[in-house]
Design brief:
Chain lengths: ~500, ~525, ~180
């Protein structure tokens, strides 16, 4: 296969910038897509060339418009497409279309995407390779009566999931029988809306599990390795908020065992490129396969920080048919890395999206601190896109040091103009249970009394700032000199005319 | 005079009785209701020690018919006089709820008429602080005649001196019409009410249960009826608001509005104006942000903020000089003109015209709101009011077309042909008979019917239409607008343009008055 | 009233949402009183224009995100506080009104964010419990359940499915 000289980045925000940085390092020309929804977006500044999609030609959002993207890639004679995450990253049809048009799709084969993207097929694959699975419906649920039957068999609580889903959409936990009809309907509805497929399946719901995922790299020459785990247990409504690598819950033995399962699944689906196998880990060390994500993950930087490998670089190298030169025994997890997602959300109002304009932003970057950001001063946060703005990733030799470094960096990270999840991240990192590593996916719901970090006296400082500003405002109003005499000075011409017209 | 003699002592005694009447007891009574006393309100309104009271010692004319309570008190429940606000004479009447519930008896009414007449005679603004139980039942028709006389003087003063009503307590029945006749109405949340018939009557007649707040509270009048132009959390802020509003007005219709030195001479972040209007014509933005970037810092004072928010009106200053601003608000209903927004705009324009306040129009309007409800409720005649008001106004009038200027709405919103002095347009402007989608459905009806993929074809036609027709350059080249300007230059262009219009005068044909389509 | 006392002292009472109150005398003199001690405050801004209050050697980033008359929404280190600044009289008035507030019969359920209505889960005249979901609102691709915060009867439904709503639009009215 030929060497990639140019890449079309079919994505926006921080991941578009992230991809462009590696591409630049490798001497590859980058093409970005400009949309009418954010024509002045920050990521465009990082592209060597911008393709203009601002003219609206269809109702399909720009980054989902397969035909237009393929057409653009051909028009500009671009070698490869990197889909980032979300949008077309896990769309087998798009990958196939790229193959058909002789454009390199940086990612796995359409077949792998299809098989692993359909959770029902993925589970069958896992089962046939003896990877542990949670008890579940083994397929889609027909109707709510079927759901009721199954739930009785599996035992409450159960979880309903969209068959073509991901990212928490279309998932519903059902605690008791009286809720099943309503929840089933909602899950279906959400699945239909989000993925145009109302199919829903059911699983046993494990209480207080950890979310552990393994990073996989596989080339076209049957080399396949894992780059250790990431713990993503700090979640709210199945949306990850803080991730770390490695995990306190794993020892070498368990790591090897889970890693092997992850590799088995990848092998079973003939997997190529970078991927992630997600597991649930219960309190007694049993793990269950959840799903495999066939894309670069949002939280990939924590793995990069502890392993030292550039995952996007390997995605590109594998895509241009290079052989994986890292052997499993080369992979050493050194130190600890933590990632905080900075979302435009109002934590105090239940994480509701917060729209606005970034007026100012200030942060520090350094050896132990990486800031993958999709925003700059003047960027608009609109309802058209996801609320994630940036990721702060910090490193330490130990977990303790990583936490300290993250807190220091969070204190230096300031964004004016919108509300963000920064106070939430501070609250988590300051929490004694997080510090001791005692976390699970129900950490936020169960262990956090307060979802944002607050120092003593901050409320009083707010009160003071309001009082001071009001005081100043009252005084300025009071001292404003209104010059009424000037209103009486008029040219005789005008005065005369005015008088006459009355 | 012998200061120890009887004559002086009598004088002092009277003053003492007066002071007892307005002593801490009475004030406490008002405070217990969450309200300030009539005199405290006056003290807040005027510059320190500038208030001069008139007719403080008159007494009630209410005959004792043996029915109802009659307070033996000076002043008959209203304090009148004049004082200075920012150094300028303003007349005031302030109803005192602690004397017979602030009810309007004949003496009370005469006092109000007295300040109304004085204010009109000297050409000074008048402020009414209203807190009254209504007509004094004991006085019967005398009280009603008092109301009518007050209304008549309100109307006589209308357009000659600014009249402001501040509702700080109840205003029910006939009492609501005096505020309704004045130029602006202020209300305080939770303690002021206005209604023609109260909750008890509503319950009796219609068997509907409503609270005072639901029927005629400040928020209802600000949001739904549009009766209240300004609402505030408490009385202190309400009175601050009154002072602020007055700082934009001349004392009478002969003078020009006052001047206030801009807070900062510094060039503002005007480059932002270039990026505020999205290229996508269907995307909303907040026109108030545009206003803030054009006018003097912090000078925009919005009127009727919550009523018909699809149009924004308010006072502001441009290089120190007061202007009135009328702007379509694309953020709300795409800035469409409907009945309520037409009424809101028209009334504001007529006020500005009465008091020589120049008008700046910021236009981004997709047209009039279509629909059965609007048509049946008379959008034709109500829209005509806005057109009438714009066309009739003789003050300097400038329009900046920010984006959409379609159809009838383009004509109405102060086009040069209805008397606008200057029309500017931003490069994002689209001036056309109708929006691209509508236009191509008519122009290419047959082509679209025959097309294989009419949706796609329509989009292509619309894009071509936008490119060829809906831009500001055709209007510019044909002379229908004066100039297509760089958004960042807007402030400077406007300052210069208004400066040239300072001496503007339009000779009107002799007539009693025009016949605005009411 | 915000009148100065004879000694030139002007008192401001800043109340939080939960009616916690802080009193400041002449805030422009830049100190906060703790016990008997006046601890000075410093206001600094960095070169990017972020503003900080320095108090007791600690630095707090402050920002006003919304202001309406005497109501402020202030962010301190990213956490927001709703503060209303009152004079001694208006504070009294506030307390009086809070005590005597006539409870409205109708609870208006407002949209917490702009979005699109997916479906209504209730019908007019239906009786709902507190916490019962009323409708589903889709915003930023997430479906959100909007629940009733009182027990009562559905009085009015103001929109239809698929309608786009603005923040604070009244979606449903529930009668107590």
């Amino acid at each position: 296969m030929k060497k990639i000289k140019s890449i079309l980045i079919a994505n926006r925000g921080e991941i578009a910038i992230r991809i462009s940085e590696t591409a630049k390092k490798m001497g590859i020309k980058t093409y970005g897509i400009k949309t009418s929804k954010e024509p002045g977006a920050y990521y465009l500044q990082f592209m060597d060339k911008i393709i203009d999609f601002t003219e609206i030609v269809s109702d399909i959002p720009e980054f989902l418009d397969i035909d237009r993207i393929i057409y653009a890639a051909k028009e500009y004679d671009i070698d490869a497409v990197h889909p980032g995450y979300g949008y077309l990253a896990e769309n087998p049809y798009f990958a196939q279309k790229c193959n058909d048009e002789k454009i390199i799709f940086i990612g796995p084969s359409p077949d792998s995407i299809y098989k692993l993207g359909n959770k029902t097929i993925a589970k069958q694959l896992a089962a046939s390779h003896k990877v542990p699975l949670l008890q579940g419906s083994n397929g889609n649920i027909r109707d709510y009566k079927h759901a009721k039957q199954l739930a009785q068999k599996i035992g409450y609580p159960v979880i309903l999931k969209a068959a073509s889903g991901g990212g928490g959409r279309g998932m519903r936990i059902v605690e008791k029988e009286s809720d099943i009809e309503k929840m089933f309907r909602m899950a279906q509805n959400e699945a239909e809306k989000a993925f145009a497929d109302p199919s829903v399946f059911m699983e046993k719901y494990v209480r207080n599990p950890r979310h552990i995922e393994f990073q996989i790299l596989a080339d076209h020459h049957d080399n396949i390795i894992h780059l250790g785990e990431r713990e993503c247990s700090i979640q709210r409504k199945h949306q990850k908020l803080i991730e770390e690598s490695p995990s306190v819950a794993l020892n070498e033995e368990l790591r090897a065992k889970m890693g092997k399962s992850a590799i088995d699944i990848a092998k079973a689906s003939n997997y190529r490129n970078a991927g992630t196998v997600e597991f649930l880990l219960d309190e007694s060390g049993n793990f269950y396969f959840m799903e495999m994500n066939t894309r670069i993950q949002v939280e990939h930087p924590v793995t990069e920080m502890v392993t030292g490998y550039d995952l996007v670089e390997w995605q590109i190298r594998i895509a241009q048919d290079e052989t994986l030169t890292i052997r499993q025994e080369d992979v050493k997890l050194k130190g600890w890395a933590i990632e905080c997602r900075i979302n435009a959300e109002d934590v105090q109002a239940g994480f509701t999206p917060y729209l606005g304009t970034i007026e100012k932003i200030s942060y520090s970057k350094g050896k132990t601190c990486r800031f993958d950001s999709g925003i700059t001063e003047g960027s608009n946060v609109t309802a058209s896109f996801d609320s994630m703005l940036a990721k702060l990733i910090c490193y330490g030799e130990t977990r303790e040091k990583a936490i300290t470094n993250t807190l220091t960096a969070l204190n230096k990270l300031q964004i004016q103009g919108i509300k963000t999840t920064i106070p939430f991240c501070k609250a988590v990192l300051n929490h004694h249970k997080f510090k001791s590593g005692d976390i699970s996916t129900s950490f936020i719901a169960k262990d956090m009394k307060k979802l944002y970090y607050q120092e003593e006296d901050e409320e009083m400082i707010a009160a003071f700032w309001a009082a001071l500003n009001y005081n100043v405002e009252l005084e300025t109003e009071d001292q404003t000199y209104v010059d009424y005499e000037k209103g009486k000075n008029m040219t005789p011409w005008l005065m005369n005319k005015r008088l006459k017209s009355l | 005079m012998d200061i120890n003699g009887k004559i002086y002592k009598d004088f002092l005694n009277r003053i003492e009785r007066f002071q007892v009447q307005n002593g801490p007891e009475k004030i406490k009574k008002q405070h217990a209701k969450g309200k300030l006393h009539a005199r405290e309100r006056i003290a807040l309104l005027f510059d320190k020690d500038s208030f001069e009271e008139l007719d403080a010692f008159v007494t009630s004319a209410t005959p004792d018919t043996g029915f109802g309570r009659i307070d033996e008190a000076f002043g008959d429940g209203v304090v009148i006089g004049h004082g200075r606000i920012n150094g300028r004479i303003v007349y005031v009447y302030s109803q005192d709820f602690t004397v017979m519930g602030g009810s309007l008896g004949s003496v009370h009414a005469k006092k109000i008429m007295k300040v109304q007449e004085l204010a009109l005679r000297v050409g000074a603004p008048i402020v009414g602080l209203i807190d009254s139980g209504g007509a004094r039942i004991q006085e019967g028709v005398a009280s009603l005649s008092g109301y009518a006389s007050i209304f008549h003087r309100n109307i006589q003063s209308s357009g000659v001196i600014p009249q402001i009503s501040v509702i700080l307590g109840p205003a029910a029945g006939g009492a609501v019409y005096s505020p309704a006749l004045t130029d602006f109405v202020f209300m305080t949340k939770n303690t002021s009410y206005m209604f023609v018939t109260g909750p008890d009557v509503v319950k009796e007649v219609l068997n509907e249960e409503v609270t005072f707040d639901e029927l005629g509270g400040a928020e209802v009048h600000a949001r739904k009826s549009g009766v209240a132009n300004f609402i505030y959390e408490d009385e202190e802020n309400t009175i601050l608001g009154v002072k602020k509003l007055l700082s934009f007005f001349p004392s009478n219709n002969l003078e020009n509005p006052p001047f206030v030195e801009p807070k900062s001479k510094k060039e503002k972040n005007i480059d932002k104006l270039r990026s505020i209007v999205p290229d996508d014509p269907n995307k909303p933005y907040d026109v108030k942000k545009v206003i803030d970037l054009i006018v003097d810092q912090d000078s925009f004072f919005e009127v009727s903020e919550q009523y018909a928010p699809n149009i924004v009106v308010g006072f502001s200053r441009l290089n120190g000089k007061a202007i009135g601003i009328v702007a379509n608000q694309p953020k709300i209903l795409a800035g469409v003109l409907d009945i309520n927004s037409s009424l809101k705009g028209a009334r504001f324009i007529r006020f500005c015209d009465s008091f020589n306040i120049p008008i700046l129009t910021l236009e981004d309007v997709p047209g009039f709101l279509p629909g059965l409800d609007q048509e049946h409720s008379g959008i034709i005649k109500h829209g005509a009011k806005l057109l009438f008001a714009y066309s009739e106004a003789t003050v300097p009038k400038i329009t900046v077309i920010l984006r959409k200027a379609y159809g009838g709405a383009f004509c109405v919103m102060n086009s040069r042909n209805v008397g606008g002095d200057y029309s500017f347009a931003w490069p994002t402007a689209e001036i056309a008979v109708m929006g691209p989608e509508g236009a191509v459905s008519i122009l290419y009806k047959r082509e679209l019917q025959d097309a294989e993929d009419p949706k796609k074809l329509k989009k292509e036609f619309a894009a071509k239409y936008r490119q060829d027709i809906a831009n500001p350059y055709i209007a510019d080249e044909k002379g229908y607008i004066d100039e297509v300007i760089d958004p960042a230059d807007t402030r400077n262009k406007l300052i210069t343009a208004f400066k040239t219009l300072e001496n503007k005068h339009v000779d009107q044909p002799a007539r009693k008055h025009g016949n605005i389509p009411l | 009233m915000f009148s100065k006392s004879k000694k030139g002292k002007q008192k401001f009472i800043a109340c939080t949402e939960k009616n916690k109150k802080f009193e400041f005398i002449n805030p422009k003199e830049l100190y906060i009183k703790r016990g008997k001690e006046n601890i000075p405050i410093e206001i600094v801004s960095d070169k990017q224009g972020f503003v900080y209050i320095v108090w007791k050697k600690r630095k707090y980033q402050v920002e006003i995100i919304e202001k309406n008359q005497n109501q402020y929404e202030i962010l301190v280190n990213g956490v927001s506080y709703s503060i209303s600044v009152e004079s001694p009289f208006s504070y009294k008035r506030r307390k009086y009104l809070a005590k005597n507030k006539e409870q409205s019969k109708v609870e208006r359920i407002q949209a917490p964010m702009p979005g699109k209505i997916v479906e209504f889960l209730v019908e007019k005249d239906q009786v709902v419990k507190e916490g019962e979901p009323l409708l589903i609102l889709e915003a930023m691709k997430m479906q959100n359940e909007i629940v009733s915060n009182i027990q009562g009867k559905i009085n009015k439904i103001n929109f239809n499915p698929e309608d786009t709503v603005m923040k604070d639009d009244i979606l449903i009215e529930v009668e107590r």
